[in-house]
């Protein structure tokens, strides 16, 4: 079995442009989904907090 840590100090290799474009697209989609999820989770928390504070009054 080859030790993968021996390849850390090796020079980087160029990847095909199609693969690089696909990876960058996947990363952009993941960031978009995380931003959308954060937006909705923040709003739900704010709504619950505001309703509970209004009920106490």
Architecture overview:
With 57 residues, this protein is mainly alpha-helical. The protein has one domain (13-56). The protein has one helix spanning 17-56. It is elongated, with a radius of gyration of 23 Å. The relative contact order is 0.06.
List keywords for this structure.
mainly alpha; elongated; 57 residues; 70% helix; 1 helix
Secondary-structure map:
Blueprint: H1 17-56
* Average pLDDT metric: 87
- Please give the radius of gyration in angstroms: 23 Å
**What order do the helices and strands follow?**
H
Apparent shape: elongated
Distance between the termini: 67 Å
Say how many strands there are: 0
Uncertain stretches of 5 or more adjacent residues: none
Strand content: under 5%
Number of domains: 1
Structural class category: mainly alpha
């Amino acid at each position: 079995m080859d030790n993968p840590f021996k390849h850390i100090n090796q020079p980087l290799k160029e990847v095909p442009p199609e693969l690089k474009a696909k990876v960058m697209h996947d990363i952009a989609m993941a960031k978009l989904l995380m931003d959308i999820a954060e937006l909705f989770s923040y709003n739900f928390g704010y709504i619950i907090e505001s309703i509970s504070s209004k009920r106490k009054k």
